[in-house]
Known about the structure:
single chain, five-stranded parallel β-sheet
Amino acid sequence: MVSHPLILDACALLNVFASGRFHDILATLDGLAHVGERARAEAQWIRAAEGEARRPVDVSEAIAGGLLFVERLSASERATFAEMAVAVDDGEAEAAAIALGRGWLLATDDRKAMRVLSAGWPRLRVLSTPELMKRWQTAAGISNAEMAAILRAVSYRASFAPRRDDPQREWWLDLMER
Length: 178
């Protein structure tokens, strides 16, 4: 599905968790899924089913099972983080500094972070939730009907909608209408 390690910021982590298929998605990443300490701490709650209380985001089982790895900033990444954190939130800055420093992909949907980081650090490679979900659908052979239900769960539980310029926006919206 992805050939490089992928670090999820808090919003991407919430979106994948909200899918209800968190472990399945991470399993197709073959040990390449990572999250920074800050993003893990920031991603605390998603909406539950209608009429129910919020649901905590507990990734401890995925970490214990080797599906998700928690990362700390290295000394050199801390300098990049400090530079980035002036313009974007700490969670996005942490994930981006790690991605840039290690040559990894950054999974984020934060519009401001994507705009600021791509302008200031053009080597940074970014993957959105719709791109990640479409790759997972293809890799796992998920039917369109099942994928539509999963995308509706992400939209509701994580209050997510793809940005207008996302390359997979039409795919996402077409499935959501099913």
